[in-house]
Structure formats: structure tokens, C-alpha cells
Amino acid sequence: MSTTEQPTTDAAPSPALPDGPRGLLIGGEFVDAADGATMAVHNPATGEVMAEVAVAGQEDVDRAVRVARDAFVGAWRDVTPSARGKILWRLADLLEENADELALIESLDNGKPLAEARGDHGFSAEVFRYYAGAATKIDGRTVTPSAPGPWHAYTRREPLGVVGQIIPWNFPLMMAAWKVAPALAAGNTILLKPAEQTPLSALRLGELFLEAGLPPGVLNILNGDGAVTGAAIAGHDGVDKIAFTGSAETGRKIVHAATGNLKKVTLELGGKSPNVVFADADLEAATAGASAAIFSHMGEVCIAGSRLYVQEDVFDDVLAGVADNARALKVGPGTDPGTQLGPLVSVEQLARVTGYIEDGLRGGARALAGGARHGDRGYFVEPTVLVDVEPDARVVREEIFGPVLVARPFKDPEDLAREANDTRYGLAAGVWTKDLSKAHRAAAELQAGMVFINTYGAIDPSLPFGGYKESGWGRELGPDGLDPYLQTKTVVVAL
Ligand code: ADP
Asked: What digits encode the pLDDT tens for the residues 465-486?
């Protein structure tokens, strides 16, 4: 079923990509790879090559680790907390001063609508400000031991050293912000690897950090393929911690690679998050919320509300509304004014998402909206709503990471909790009801790191973000997001 207009073939030409760094950032300079390797960066709205960026091999990773170690010992860990905070704050100001340019880079590179890119970058600036403030609030404790004798005992909270941070392509700049801000606030130095599909905004971030006064070598940025550059960072004995956001499959590889020096690991992985609408909900708000939960950012969102459960009395009405919303979305290049749903990030992602849709339809699902690729140029997919899906269908169980919603009716809350929790993931969940008790009972019952009540996907720099079960290890954002970048030292003095 083809439900959206098909403007992509004759769409206006993409705006020009702003100039910016294309090398590896090592030791405060953008440089070529040691072996001169480069890779192409594509515009997902057209499939055309927009830029060539350097690709880091083992030799570059080794050099970046040495540089980051020197910068840690020689400079950054001893910079005062206030001075660290000021650099982070200055960086946030620079992000805002360059908001239009950054949003254009992100929209061209990732495909997302300009308005969404602007929103991501505003949020990123706030994350830098939150952790700018946190830098001056990292304290140990004095402790009174019970063992006989006069003691003076206290704890210190110290940075780990060199941290590797590997990020995905769905929120290129925002994922960099979530990782870099707490690590720098805590006094660590960094090797950041952007996703190979979307390196451009992270490189511009590196340039802005130098302008903000970050000492050379504190933040190093290494583009490249996961299997080469990412694996070299994850397996490096000179890296003290790895922070990863991406697929569960790659998360497992990172865990294995980290065993060599038993580096610390935090993971933010996938989800297949249930969004639950009870019959007593504000149905207009729930319908709009359920649509935004799966269609914003093309559904390429780890917390996407990708499984919709609606109480049976109102199932047809709510689903009709969600399908109308899907059909009404303006699909087109992210840089076109008015676009609400951009292309998927890559040709691989296009194949993956359409493959899931076809698999669902073959298995007996019915598409209330969408159900196919959109247009024949670029990587667009129709916003899709599937009903009549069985609980064990792949479209219900596996993360699709695209604008594809599966919906099932439920009768009573007990069945609902069982079905909503019947997943290996546990990242987020939504609950829509006017009944306070029901809402909080569901919040307690749902196995997810974040539960949204009468809203979906509301995130904030102060609120911990992370997963239960196979959705990850550890939390980002909030005070919890700083902890993985610190280690506690106990100091005991016999007086
Ligand atoms: P996707 O399959 O959607 O691209 P991934 O989880 O593989 O998602 O990618 C997220 C990030 O992990 C990217 O920066 C990617 O380059 C990186 N990556 C992929 N494979 C590995 C690996 N074996 N080791 C380290 N990083 C990897």
C-alpha cells in the first residue's frame, strides 16, 4: 500500500554542505590518517557523496591513545574544576552561536528534518551546561571507621584516565554531547569515534572545542568503521573505559573486546519499547503521542515507542488516528522546509527496515498506513502502521529502528504487563491514562529504565537515561551519568 506522495525524485537540490574539518582530530590538530585512508560520506536524501573523511587505522588509534594519556597526566586531570566547567559552558555557547550551520550539517549527513536537528543541538548545549555545573561538585566524603584507634579516613573521586566513546548515527552530535560532557567534567581525556555514516557534526564539535579553549589532546576524534577503528579502541590496553551506544549485537562485541585489560564498560543499547494506551486516557493526546513516539527522527531512536498496546474498546479509534497521522506526515529531504520525516540514514538501513516490513506483511500483518519504500531516490520509507501482528512475529520482537509501528489490543492490565514485558529489551515504556493509581501501578510493573506517563520520550539533562535487561549497562545524564567516569579512592591515615 502506498499512502504518501512521492516528491523525492524531483525534490529541490540539496543545499551545499558547509566547509569543515574532514581529518582525524589528534593532539589538537586535524590530520590525515597515517596510511592516508579516507571514506565517503553520503547524503541519504540523494545517495550522493558529499565529502571524504579520514579513516583511523591501528596506528592512528595508538597515537591518539598516547596523546590522550599525556594530556590526562600532563594537563587535564589537574585543571581546576571551575576551569573545566568554564570550557564546557563556553562550548555550549558556541554550539548555540553556530546552531544554523550545525543543524544543516546534521540534516545533510543524517537526513533528519532541520527542526529536529536544531532541537538535538539545543539539548546538547544544555547537556554541556549541566555537566559544566557538575564539574565543581565532585566531592569525596570523610568517613569514621569503627575499628579501634584514632583514624582519619576519607574518599576521593578521581577520573579514570583515557576513555573511548563509540557513538551511533541517529543523534550524531547529541550522542557525542552525552558522552563527552560528563567525561570531561570528571577530568578524563577522550577518544571519540563517531559512526562512519555521520562523522561531520562531531568533527565540527571538535573544532569548536579547540575554540572554547580545550587543551590539545584532551578530546581526540577518530572516524572509521566499527570493525576496524571501533574495535581498535574497544580492545586497546591503553584505554581505561569504553562507553558505547548502538546495537545490542555490537555491544556484545565491545564487551568481549574489553576483557583484555578489563576496562570499565557502559552500554546504551537497543529497545522495543511498549507504549500503552488505556481506554480512560485522553485519547487525542495519546494518539498524537503514540504517533510522535514512533515517527519522530524517522523512528531511528533507541527509545522509540515501537510497540503500541491499546485497550480493546478504543483500539480501532486510536489506530485510525495514528494511521491518519502517519499518512499526513510530509516526507522529504530533511533540509526541505516543512519536511517532517526525512530519509533513513543509509542504504543498509533502508534494506533493513523494508525487509522487516515485508516480513511482517508476509506473516499476516495488515498495513493501516505505509508498508513500502517511499519514492525511488534516496533512502525514504513510508511511515508504517502494522496491525494483526502475532506476539512472536519478528516485527514485534526485534528492534526495527525505522518508522514502523506494530499495534496490538489488550483486555486487562495483567495481560498487558505480561505482554509488554515479554521482550529481551527494557529501555523505555509509555503509559496513557487519567487514572493516577493505574498509571503508577503500571510504572512500577513495567521493566524499563524510563517510564513516561501521559507523554513519551521526555528527556532532560538532569534525568538518568538507560536500560533494564539487554538494553544496557549504566546510565547517562543526571548525576548517575557522571559516576561511570569517576572511581573512588579510599585514603586511611593512622593518627
Ligand atoms: P548499526 O549496525 O546500526 O550501524 P552499530 O551498533 O553497529 O549500529 O554502530 C554503532 C557504533 O558502533 C558505530 O560508531 C560503529 O562504527 C561502531 N561499531 C560497530 N562495530 C563495532 C565493533 N566491532 N567494535 C567497536 N565499535 C563498533
From this structure: 999 999 999 999 999 999 999 9
Residue 230 lies in a domain: yes
Percentage of residues of the chain with pLDDT beyond 90: 96
In a domain, 58, yes or no: yes
Q: Is residue 205 part of a domain?
A: yes
pLDDT higher than threshold 70 for residue 5 = no
What pLDDT, on the 0 to 100 scale, is given for residue 11? Answer: 57
Query: Could you tell me which of 58, 409, 92, 373 has the C-alpha nearest to residue 227?
Result: 58
Q: 137 and 224, same structural domain? A: yes
Q: Are residues 116 and 196 in the same domain?
A: yes
Ligand 1: residue whose CA is nearest its atom 25? 230
* Residue that is written with C-alpha cell 510530509 in the block: 330
C-beta of 235 in contact with ligand 1 (< 6 A)? no
Here the CATH number for the domain that contains residue 154 is 3.40.605.10
Alpha helix segments (H runs only) across 279-346: 283-295, 315-328
136 and 195 in a single domain? The answer is: yes
CATH assignment at residue 424: 3.40.309.10
Domain span including residue 437: 274-460
- Residue 289 φ then ψ, to 5°: -65, -40
Q: Which atom of ligand 1 is nearest to the CA of 225?
A: 16
226 within ligand 1 shell (Cβ under 6 A): yes
Does residue 394 lie in a domain region? yes
Are 245 and 268 within 8 A, CB to CB?
yes
Ligand 1 geometric centre to CA of 195 (Å): 7
Strand, coil or helix: what is 402?
coil
CB of residue 231 inside a 6 A radius of ligand 1: yes
Q: For residue 243, which of 198, 183, 307 has the smallest C-alpha distance?
A: 183
Q: Atom 14, ligand 1: which residue's CA is nearest? A: 195
Burial of 376 (0-12, 13-18, 19+ CB in 10 A): exposed
Q: Is the Cβ–Cβ distance between 295 and 404 less than 8 Å?
A: no
DSSP-derived 3-state class of residue 57 = coil
